[in-house]
Amino acid sequence: MITLHHLEYSRSTRIIWLLEELGVEYEMVRHQRHPETMRAQADLAAIHPLAKAPTAIIDGNLMMESGAIIEYILEQYGEGKLAPAPGSNDRAEFLEWLHFAEGTLANPVIVQMLAPRFGGLGEGYAPFVEGEVVKLLDYVEHHLDNREYIVGDSFSGADINIMYVIELAMAAGMLANRPACADYGKRMMARDGYRKAIELGGPVVPSLGG
Amino acid sequence: MITLHHLEYSRSTRIIWLLEELGVEYEMVRHQRHPETMRAQADLAAIHPLAKAPTAIIDGNLMMESGAIIEYILEQYGEGKLAPAPGSNDRAEFLEWLHFAEGTLANPVIVQMLAPRFGGLGEGYAPFVEGEVVKLLDYVEHHLDNREYIVGDSFSGADINIMYVIELAMAAGMLANRPACADYGKRMMARDGYRKAIELGGPVVPSLGG
Question: Complex ipTM, two decimals?
């Protein structure tokens, strides 16, 4: 039994996508952001004190963290799909890219994207973040050159985890000179599971303000 | 066969600790930071282009990301130790805390700690980061109240992953009013495996500048 607490314009779209790819039944509870602060509100905080998205209740386990939820759902409901099994060839790379999405890549990309909304990041920190974004997206671009998926030769939960960040980077114009990332993003967004997730959960990026 | 590329004052101390707890043999290659920039240098970039710590080569797999390396080592070398098995009671919580350490907690704590070195974070972003640090550390404090370990009732890889951040928070004075976190930190640092890791790899925090 899976209950997904979905916050509009958020990482919880990942979990809709995963569940649609697996064809697993779930209940979805919808939460809106505060129209001015854009932050999650009391209805999500009533479920989990950190009010993070995604928040999910899976077989009685209250969970947050996209990567953890993806791993847990794949272990309990995946029937061997969308993840290389422990001990198999692509397992190390799968775990690495799954963790890389939020452990390393997401923060600089999102902070750089939201910097104008914060009125800038300070004279020392702003160029540091920009340097990280360039270095990390160039690394992903190099990795995706001549690759169909982020890990091995098939679609996996690691694609879902990294795609949220790729999509933000795309929307923020960061992929203009990174054709492998941009093509990968478009391929992933053409998948039935992704399109169904957007249909059910709404767009991932509201508007970047033009 | 495990080769750990250890960078001084870094997250790679986690992997020494894990391997010492497991009693698994490994080779350690030592890397120093640039004395002025404090960043990793060409010798680590020669192993992996992102020059991140930890970087490890495990049975021929070049890996980064602490959480991924911890999971992979536990799957391949753990013999059931230091992680609840898939399908067991504490599995969801284990995955969540393992991912939480770097996915949510580490960035605001480290950015807040390094803010003076960057000359500040900007008038809008600095209070946002500070608010996140308070909210997240208060959440961990509440979780650790009357608990011995971060997950269930035994030591696991999730303790190792979150302890790096707890130790930085402790060194930065962020645990002064968070006794459960501070006591937990001291308990973890009293473990033989931790002490051996510091003996072999050096301290995690060089100096915070007083």
Answer: 0.97
